[in-house]
Specification:
The protein is α/β, with parallel strands linked by helices and 579 residues long. Helix content is 20%, strand content 26%. It has 12 helices and 24 strands.
């Protein structure tokens, strides 16, 4: 017989909740196993699994796990895993991997997320350190349809969400993550001793214009679960009875952490909608990973304090895929879904237009334009505003423009003015430019997006629909980008700057007032001139002759020969006045 597995395991919990002693209930299996494997010991279910697995049909929900290599490392494809249907249980790995023919028939791995599938002739086991669904060569897979209750990204990323941060540490060997509880309060929630201004909580609120509010995870009033006392402002130490030295299998640590969280009564959505787990140093070869449309994300030690890593990984929880550029899957550094940075409180940026729309943000400020609405030679001028200015805009002023270029392409173009200010002030690239991104048309599928252009004034981009930036003006405190959109417009689609319109013609009464004013001015000026001239004449006539000077030198100097008959009398020469 194999080793025993007690109530802490996900399977035993399911048995207890249902009151059944059949393993079928635990994993949603089809077919019954021997009931003797379940029994009650001191009020706790304890069961073992047979060494030789019984072939049964296994039904589960497929989840996708997206891992991220350190900067410079290769991009990793999403990995499928299995969870019990409709429950926040530990993840079961597939052994071997899913049949390639089945994956291809579903459109690839990215289309598997959220699917409920049945492995006919498979079996499941929790006897390994990592729970596993075994798929023998004789088994085949049946897809039963989409998962029940799987949220669209827009539903997940709006409203108030509680986040719990768990530092995984060893009680037996002492290993623990580098960031302290206070560090994580500061960097995740902007709390603690020295709050960091740019943090996960602040960026979530600012980038969504308060559509998404993050609150620290906490037990609801009346919850007496043993783990409630361990939480301090949304952060806790999660003690594991295992060695957490470098080289330990991260999947084993993940499984142990989820089981312990359940044992503490903290795995319910009322305590936390999302949980961030931090590994001690040297365990995870990836900087972080998360489950698509899931509730958990995992960080390699100090990366658990990076705001860009938080926004990236929880972005995966919200259903977002990576944003790339130039064949680099993480290459778009105008979005948090590109590369992450091991920095505290930097960069302050957001997502691109397609991702903002998928999350349900700026819904009243999104304009949709389809190529089918245009005819040859038609040109449309459209205004685009910065998403950072949205609070100063009127309803309907677009900060995102979705261009449905043509349905056979399978994507849309999303335009967004990437103004570098406020919560987008640290955007790494395409600052103060209009980003053009290829992203999903409508479905919330896990689809890679690509930034294909960054446009400044006078630049254009053509993908069936031609986009040209005509002008960028500032109206008050708001930036306005004038765009031209057309199919095949010949010539310059941007109109020349318009001249100021001529003034409107004057009314008759305005002309009369102006004429009267001019007449009155002339009269006043004439009166003023006459008065000044009269005053000067009177002043000259009334000035008396100056007395003769007694100074002999001056008198001698001023004597002029009497023979000069053209000299005026001295009294006239001595007469003075001021003009």
């Amino acid at each position: 017989m194999s080793p025993k597995v007690d109530l802490l395991s996900d399977l035993a919990q399911a048995l207890q909740q249902t009151g059944r002693d059949s393993l079928v209930v635990a994993l949603g299996l089809r077919g019954d196993l021997n009931a003797s494997i379940g029994s009650a010991v001191n009020g706790t279910f304890v069961f073992t699994l047979p060494t030789v697995q019984t072939t049964v049909d296994v039904t589960c929900e497929i989840v996708l796990r997206q891992k991220m290599n350190p900067p410079g490392g290769a991009a990793l494809p999403p990995e499928p895993a299995c969870v019990p249907v409709g429950r926040r249980g530990p993840v079961y790995e597939f052994s071997p991997s899913l049949p390639k023919a089945f994956v291809a028939s579903m459109g690839g791995v990215r289309q598997l997320g959220g699917k409920i599938v049945t492995f006919v002739g498979g079996n499941a086991s929790a006897e390994k350190s990592v729970p596993t669904v075994f798929i023998p060569a004789s088994a085949f897979v049946v897809a039963d349809g989409p998962a029940r209750g799987v949220q669209r990204p827009s539903a997940a990323a709006t409203g108030t969400k509680k986040v719990l941060v768990a530092r995984m540490r060893s009680t037996t060997h002492g290993q623990e993550p580098t960031p302290t509880i206070n560090d994580l309060k500061e960097r995740v929630f902007g709390m603690g001793i020295s709050p960091v201004a740019v943090n996960f909580k602040s960026q979530s609120a600012a980038c969504s214009e308060n559509e998404l509010i993050i609150e620290p995870g906490a037990c609801v009033s009346g919850n007496t679960a043993p783990g409630c006392a361990e939480i301090s402002d949304g952060v806790m130490n999660l003690d594991l009875d295992m060695d957490l030295s470098p080289g330990v299998d991260p999947s084993e640590v993940e499984y142990a952490a989820v089981v312990k969280l359940n044992a503490l009564g903290l795995r319910d959505a009322a305590t936390a909608d999302y949980v961030m787990f931090l590994f001690p140093p040297g365990i995870s070869p990836w900087i972080a990973y998360a489950y698509i449309n899931g509730w958990s994300s995992f960080y390699s030690d100090t990366w658990g304090g990076s705001v860009s890593a938080h926004m990236h990984e929880v972005g995966h929880n919200f259903g977002l895929a990576h944003s790339g550029e130039f064949d680099e899957e993480y290459g778009d550094e105008s979005s948090y879904m590109g590369y992450s940075f091991l920095s505290i409180g930097w960069p302050a940026m957001c997502y691109h237009g397609g991702q903002h729309r998928s999350l349900g943000w700026y819904s009243t400020h999104t304009t949709e334009i389809a190529a089918s609405d245009f005819v040859s030679g038609q040109n449309e001028l459209v205004d685009l505003f910065a998403f950072t200015d949205v609070q100063a805009l009127s309803a309907g002023d677009p900060v995102i423009i979705k261009l449905d270029v043509a349905s056979p392409r399978g994507y849309a173009l999303y335009l967004q003015y990437n103004k570098a200010e406020d919560h987008n002030s640290g955007v790494v690239e395409s600052a103060n430019l209009i980003t053009v991104v290829q992203d999903a048309l409508d479905t919330p599928a896990y689809q890679q997006s690509w930034k294909v252009a960054s446009l400044g004034e006078g630049d254009d981009y053509d993908d069936n629909l031609r986009v040209k930036v005509c002008s960028l003006d500032v109206v008050g405190s708001v930036d306005v980008v004038r765009l031209s959109i057309s199919l095949d417009y010949i010539g310059d689609p941007c109109p020349p700057p318009s001249l100021s319109p001529p003034p409107a013609p004057l009314e008759w009464w305005e002309i009369l007032l102006i004429a009267l004013g001019a007449l009155i001015g002339i009269i006043l000026l004439s009166l003023c001139i006459l008065r000044v001239c009269f005053a000067r004449t009177v002043e000259i006539d009334m000035v008396p002759a100056a007395p003769a000077r007694a100074d002999p030198i001056r008198s001698e100097h001023r004597r002029i020969p009497q023979s000069r008959s053209d000299i005026a009398p001295s009294t006239t020469r001595e007469k003075t006045f001021d003009l």
